[in-house]
Amino acid sequence: MPEPQLTPEVFDRAVVAIALTAGPEHRMVYYNDAFRELFGDRPLGAPAREAFTEPGSERFLATLDAVLADGTARQVTAHRTLGCPTDGPAHRHFVYSCSPAATRYGPGILAAAIDTTAELHSALEAERQSAERLEALRRYEALMAAAAQMVWVARTDGTASELMPGWEEITGQPFPEAAADDGWLDVVHPQDRADTAARWAAAARELPHVFDHTFRVRSAAGGYRHVRSRAVPVPHENSGTEWIGTTRDIEDHWRGRLRERLLARAGAVTEAERAEDAFAALAATLVPDLTDVCAVYLLPAPDAAGEEIVATRIASVARPGLPPLPPLNQQTFTLGARARQAVTDRTPALLDLTDGAVPGGAVPEISARWLSAARATSLTLLPIVVDGAVVALAATAGCEGAPPPGPADIDLQHEVLQRAQAPLRQALALQRARHAAVVLQRALLTTPPRLGGAAVAARYQPGSRNAEVGGDWYDAFALPDGSFAVTIGDVAGHDLAAATTMGQLRAMLRSIAYTRGHAHTPADTLRELDTAAEGLGVGSFATAVHARLVRHGADGGWEMEWANAGHPPPVLVPVDGPPRLLAAEDADVPLCVDPRRPRVTHRHPVGPGETLLLYTDGLVEVPGEHLNDGLARLCRTAAAARHRPLADFCDHLVAQVADVRDDIAVIAFRPDRQARAADGASRGPGREGGR
To answer: What angle do CA 542, 543, 548 make, to 5 degrees?
Structure first.
């Protein structure tokens, strides 16, 4: 919107001396009759330095330069003196102010002066007239400052009016004629209404130096526009306070600044390890400046096609004050027609929700219920394109009666979402790598075989912050001599490299344990694994417990021999009594540290009904807590659950971890209490089973 220009002719009959200059040389372009009477004729079109040559004019010229330089009005209230150009007193005295103004000649200065000669001749009269004339000067200054905007006054008697009209032009509504009339709030944006009313009420009570507030009003042309109101109080000693204010449409300026700020925030989204984090940070750039809520739904593949597209909600952000967002674990849905169209056309789609109903397939059903609870009025679907392909769909909504976004709002939302290409590309690449690692990891975590005379159960719980990718593993398999091998391990890291290394170490350990004879101890197996890993360049810091279980005695018991490479100790849970940590005084070093270091094989019986538990550190470690505290907690939990079926026992242990930050792998072994040695020998370890 072009800036209105000051029309100086409105001051022709003003009682205050008014002059207008333009340009860096302050050329005289206008002065009124009151100015001529006070200062005499001055040459129009001449620079101020040529028009004002009297002694003492230097301060006035310096004031003009300063105001033009920084755009700040200046007021000189100390009396200035000049010789009279006409008959009358020998000297006249005056005060003046200089303020910036937009003129038809370009940027300029409006100078206003008041003759104070009479005040110096009579002290009492001077006091009265000075107050009146300074008040008039303030009004002219306010009018001057508002020359590019609407100007209004709220008087002490409760009436209000516009000195320079513009309210109806902006809003299409008449200006309220009473200062206490709150009808003007009807055109204020619903979300700005309460705050605007409260700020104005506080200003009326506290009389600040200036009232300055930006809010949105309904435009006569439709939609909402930002305006800025500034007002100053003018106290009257006996009759209260008058307000003189301005209101200006700043929508274009506000939107330009907002666009710069939001694009900068979107461009600053850091490269996240998880797509969820990257998209959540991007959604947060829109809330609350452009929308009340933003959710992002990841598509199964770029530019997904076919009869059905199943999207997954991976991020959502809402402004404060709205209902809690639904959890992300209820997030998958099949895109409906409108959502599919937005993806296919790669253009935003605005859905009207004034009737409270969300079209099917626009968002998941749980999200649709949330939108209803939040009194959403509109839903905007915005495709997110990375490297030329649609990879996700964002959904934004206005809630609690907010009007639908205009075309400019939707365009800006879409532009911001497209800004963070680099971090989104990085996050999606990492996600694809993690998916490959998950496939690999799940393929390696096979179901333990069924075992005659004993039960075996295993569980794996991915860390919530690691997108299901890690180096934790378990393994259980029968050996040719009839014994049973059980392993638990943990490779450092939470990425594809860790999962790959885990797979390599697991495969090598299986091969070594299976092909060596009975005389080959678990310590020998781990030592050979360490040597092979170093020689083949597979080395990565890892811990493990490898055990071999052999039937022992006629009571159904088993003998366990094991070696521990820097891993948390196994736990033996007896039928009665406290659990035991099967820990050595001097634990062996982890794998891939020094293959030449000796390793020790330990032995311990596992009686009928006793539970042997192997686990990774995610089950016991809590940041900021000593490991012994976690081990003690595990023993208490295991003791309380010892009589549960083995599968339930494992589920219970994992469920007791309040915050699964790291991967958890557990494998448990329990000899049957009623097992008969002869029956067990006839069956032997089998290949069938289930977890």
So the answer is: 130
Instruction: Give the end-to-end CA distance of the chain in Å, rounded to a whole number.
Output: 71
- DSSP code per residue over 502-565: HHHHHHHHHHHHHHS-TTS-HHHHHHHHHHHHHHTT----EEEEEEEEEE-STTS-EEEEEEEE
How is domain 8-145 classified at the CATH fold level?
Beta-Lactamase (3.30.450)
Q: Is 332 strand, coil or helix?
A: strand
Q: Please indicate whether residue 142 or residue 358 has the higher confidence score (pLDDT).
A: 358
pLDDT of 88: 52
Average pLDDT over residues 213-220: 91
Return d(Cα 245, Cα 251) in angstroms, integer. Answer: 19
Tell me the HSE value of 376 on the side-chain side, using a 13 A CA sphere: 27
CA gap 379, 293 in Å, rounded: 10
500-528: b (≥16 Cβ within 10 Å) or e:
bbbbbbbebbbebbeeeeeeebbbbbbbb
User: Structural domain boundaries of the chain?
Assistant: 8-145, 154-249, 260-429, 445-615+669-683
On the CB side of 600, how many CA atoms lie within 13 Å of its CA? 10
Distances from the Cα of 483 to the Cα of 341, 552, 571, 612, 651, angstroms: 61, 11, 20, 16, 26
157: phi then psi, degrees, rounded to nearest 5? -85, 5
Tokens representing residue 514 in the block: 């299976």
126, with CB counted inside 10 A (0-12, 13-18, 19+), is middle
**260-429 matches 445-615+669-683 in fold:** no
> Edge-to-edge strands of the sheet including 571-573?
454-461, 664-671, 611-615, 571-573, 580-581
263-272 per-position pLDDT tens digit: 777 766 666 5
Mean pLDDT of 475-487: 93
Beta-ladder partners of 383:
393
Cis preceding-peptide flag for 608 (omega within 30 of 0): no
Measured CA to CA, the distance from residue 204 to residue 184 in angstroms comes to 16
Q: How confident is the model at residue 438 (pLDDT cuts 50, 70, 90)?
A: low
CATH number of 260-429: 3.30.450.40
The lowest-confidence range among 110-124, 280-294, 329-343 is 110-124
| 193 pLDDT more than 80 | yes
Q: Are 394 and 382 in contact (CB under 8 A)?
A: yes
For the 445-615+669-683 domain, the top CATH level (class) is alpha beta
Identify the CA nearest to 571 among candidates 552, 545, 553, 543.
Answer: 545
Question: CA angle, corner 665, sides to 663 and 667, nearest 5?
Answer: 175
The confidence band for 677, taking pLDDT boundaries of 50, 70 and 90, is very low
User: Over 60: is that where the pLDDT of 89 sits?
Assistant: no
Judged against a pLDDT cut of 50, whether residue 49 lies above it is answered with yes
Sheet bearing 472-478, strands edge to edge:
472-478, 484-491, 542-551, 558-565, 602-606
Q: 154-249 sits in which CATH class?
A: alpha beta
The DSSP secondary structure of 100-126, one letter per residue, reads EEEETTEEEEEEEEEE-HHHHH-HHHH
Amino acid sitting at position 451: L
Query: What's the pLDDT at 304?
Result: 53
Angle, helices 421-444/275-284, rounded to nearest 10 degrees: 150
